């Protein structure tokens, strides 16, 4: 039986590129930005829906906002979080997320509550974390922002 002799340098030259493929996950890489790319004069405009009173799930929505700011850059993205239904419970002063929401307001993340939900649950705008805005209908706010070019996400 013939023996195949391969030198160590040649073997390494053959194996190293194969190892690189094995380490890199398929499809890994950077997100390709659409034209025009986001910038100060052309920020990405994104509205996130907050519809849960589950603290962990609501915290996840807040982290999504931060992650979007990190990805695009704080000056290259406008973010609004619109709460309605049970999500409104997170926007009140007695919410376990009140301090975090107050902090995010300082980083230009806009928070908007639903007046219809407040009426239904016996709350008023005075119950909101200071700096949180409100509109009569949270769902309509999302629709109108979409019609103005905002991207709506329901994380």
TrEMBL record:
Kindly indicate where the leader peptide sits in this chain. 1-22
Arranged from A to Z, the UniProt key words for this protein are: Signal
Kindly give the SUPFAM superfamilies that the UniProt entry links to this protein. DsrEFH-like
Which InterPro entries does the record match to this protein? DsrEFH-like
PANTHER family per the UniProt record, alphabetical: BLR3518 PROTEIN (PTHR37691)
Kindly provide the name given to this protein in its UniProt entry: Uncharacterized protein
Taxonomy, top ranks, is: Bacteria, Pseudomonadati, Pseudomonadota, Alphaproteobacteria, Rhodospirillales
